[in-house]
Structure formats: structure tokens, C-alpha cells
Design the sequence.
């Protein structure tokens, strides 16, 4: 084991801090993804907006607790999920209400209306799932998180994550099949 | 490969199959239409969800700006406070000084007569001074040649900063 002199310790600490230090730009670049995740949690664009802001404020205050700079997105999601859990404890959320809100953002010009309607319908299916299934499916399918990362963000067991993912996948598949059958008629 | 491998599908799609099992399952996929269909449906779903979220759920334009401004207004997090870290050392010094003062014989005692001096030296126990040091200090006694004076060098030990959960 390499010995380190007492005098070197402050220098090492300073170097580690600078390696881990987050500048606000490192965080801000994740706003769209955190916003979309908070939409999944809250089901309401206004609450998602508030929760996103609160998440970044909390993250900024706690940035010295981040162990690995690369893991910043998962860390932000975890903060958002924790804040949302606290919020639910204080004040239970109304029923998920994204159904009518999802397509409110204007589509890029020239985009096929049908294509957009299809995308919008998929998001509605996603948001009609029970909260846990919705969150697990979103993190796995959209964010490509591993099961371990999902467990870390949502503070659930691996078994629960796997079960919820499987149920969500099947529910989405049924929706697809139903729609396909209706279209074929 | 038997059809029992169909039971691996959930782990495979969850990305939770052991790495060296993936090729085995992919072999199975070549032979199993039902699993293949399941994997294709999953890939389609992922693609569509990611695209839908990206296209239809952009955050309000002003949100990033608002967040950036509110972060700028936040005070800097408190720097490490060296004074607080010296508290255990200061407490140990106080303890040591107190113990030494207690151990020094009181000067207002009557002087011993010649015969009593030798008896007192044989009978009187040497005062044992025990000083409890905090965990992050190492104390090393230093001989200064005086039986009534004990000097203890204290070395702080390096302890990694504790981190709070966010």
C-alpha cells in the first residue's frame, strides 16, 4: 500500500472535489429528460414543471453527495422520485391526468398527423398503467436503464422491478393487439 | 435448446440475463417464433415510446432558463469547516490538561518529616492517569524526563468525509 503524507491529503481532497464538482450546465442539460420522467410520475405537466424545478434545486444543494459524475441522470431521477414520494405523503395525487394533455405540444411542421396521433396514443397507454409499472417501463424502455439502476431510482426490489416491467410490457402489447384488430376491421 | 428457455424471456428483455446466457437465448430465438415475436414487439415498443416522448413531451422552453437562474441564485454550499474538525482534538487537550492538574500533588499539604519521606515513597501509589482519546486521534506519550509531567503527542487520523444520501 502506498503511503500518503499528511501534507498531501488536502491536495488529494481538492483534486477529488474538482473531479466531482458539478457546474450548473452539467445539470441543466438533463432538464428535458428529468421533465419527461416527472411527467410519468405526476401525470400533470404543471406539477411536472414544479417537480423538475424542485429536483434541480435539491440536486444543486446536494451536489457534493454525488459519487460519480457519470451517474448524474440516475441521481436526478432518484431525487425526483423521492420528492414525489414525499409530496404524495403530504397530499395524495389526483388520478393520472395526462390523457388530454399529452398532444398539447405542437408537432414539428410537416409531420404526419396520423403518425403523431399514433405516438400520442402510445403515451396515453403508458400513462394509463399503474404508477409503478409506468415508471419501470419508462426507465427501461425509454431511458435504457438497467434493472439495478431502476431499483436504485425507485427504491424497489429487483423482483418488484422485474414483475412490474413484465406486467407493463404485457399490458402495452395487449393495447397494440387491440388497436391492430380494430384497424383491421 | 428446449422450449423451457422461453422462461428466460422476461430476464432477457429486462437486461437481467447473465451476460454469457444471452448468446444461448439468442440461439433459442432463432428457433422460437413466439419469443422472437415478443422481442420484436418489445423493440418496436421501445422505439415508439422513446420517439413519442422525445417528440411530444418537450419541456416548456422557459423551464431550463428558470432553473439555470434559480441555481445561480443559490448560495455556495458550505465549505468544510476546519474548526469543527478540530473539536475532538481540543476536547482531548482539555481532558489531558485536567488529568495532569489532578495528578500534580497539592502544594498546601504539610511537608513530610525525614522518616516519613521514605515510607511515603514506598506506600503511595503512583497516580494512574487514563485519558480517553476520540477515535480520530492517536496519542503517543513522550518522555520528557520528569515523572510528574506527561506530554502526549496527538496525531489526527485521516477519515474520508461522510456523504449524505440525497
Sequence:
Amino acid at each position: 500500500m502506498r503511503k500518503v503524507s499528511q501534507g498531501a491529503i488536502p491536495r488529494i481532497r481538492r483534486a477529488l472535489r474538482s473531479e466531482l464538482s458539478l457546474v450548473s450546465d452539467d445539470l441543466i442539460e438533463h432538464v428535458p429528460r428529468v421533465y419527461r420522467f416527472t411527467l410519468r410520475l405526476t401525470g400533470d405537466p404543471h406539477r411536472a414543471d414544479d417537480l423538475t424545478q424542485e429536483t434541480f434545486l435539491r440536486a444543486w444543494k446536494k451536489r457534493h453527495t454525488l459519487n460519480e459524475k457519470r451517474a448524474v441522470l440516475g441521481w436526478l431521477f432518484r431525487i425526483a422520485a423521492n420528492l414525489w414520494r414525499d409530496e404524495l405523503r403530504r397530499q395524495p395525487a389526483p388520478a393520472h391526468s395526462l390523457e388530454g394533455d399529452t398532444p398539447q405540444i405542437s408537432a414539428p411542421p410537416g409531420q404526419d398527423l396520423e403518425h403523431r396521433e399514433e405516438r400520442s396514443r402510445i403515451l396515453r397507454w403508458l400513462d394509463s398503467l399503474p404508477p409503478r409499472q409506468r415508471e419501470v417501463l419508462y426507465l427501461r424502455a425509454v431511458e435504457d436503464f438497467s434493472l439495478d439502476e431502476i431499483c436504485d431510482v425507485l427504491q424497489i426490489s429487483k423482483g418488484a422491478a422485474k414483475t412490474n416491467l413484465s406486467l407493463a410490457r404485457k399490458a402495452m402489447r395487449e393495447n397494440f393487439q387491440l388497436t391492430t384488430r380494430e384497424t383491421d376491421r | 435448446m428446449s422450449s423451457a428457455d422461453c422462461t428466460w424471456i422476461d430476464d432477457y428483455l429486462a437486461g437481467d440475463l447473465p451476460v454469457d446466457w444471452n448468446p444461448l437465448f439468442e440461439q433459442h430465438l432463432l428457433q422460437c417464433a413466439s419469443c422472437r415475436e415478443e422481442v420484436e414487439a418489445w423493440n418496436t415498443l421501445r422505439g415508439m415510446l422513446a420517439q413519442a416522448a422525445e417528440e411530444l413531451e418537450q419541456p416548456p422552453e422557459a423551464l431550463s432558463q428558470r432553473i439555470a437562474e434559480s441555481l445561480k441564485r443559490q448560495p455556495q454550499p458550505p465549505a468544510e469547516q476546519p474548526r469543527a474538525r478540530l473539536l475532538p482534538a481540543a476536547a482531548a487537550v482539555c481532558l489531558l490538561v485536567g488529568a495532569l492538574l489532578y495528578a500534580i500533588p497539592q502544594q498546601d499539604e504539610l511537608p513530610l518529616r525525614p522518616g516519613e519521606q521514605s515510607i511515603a515513597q514506598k506506600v503511595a501509589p503512583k497516580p494512574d492517569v487514563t485519558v480517553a482519546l476520540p477515535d480520530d486521534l492517536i496519542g503517543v506519550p513522550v518522555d520528557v524526563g520528569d515523572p510528574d509531567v506527561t506530554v502526549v503527542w496527538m496525531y489526527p487520523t485521516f477519515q474520508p468525509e461522510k456523504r449524505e444520501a440525497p
The CA atoms of residues 82 and 154 of chain A lie 8 Å apart. Chain A touches chain B through 59 residues (CB under 8 Å).
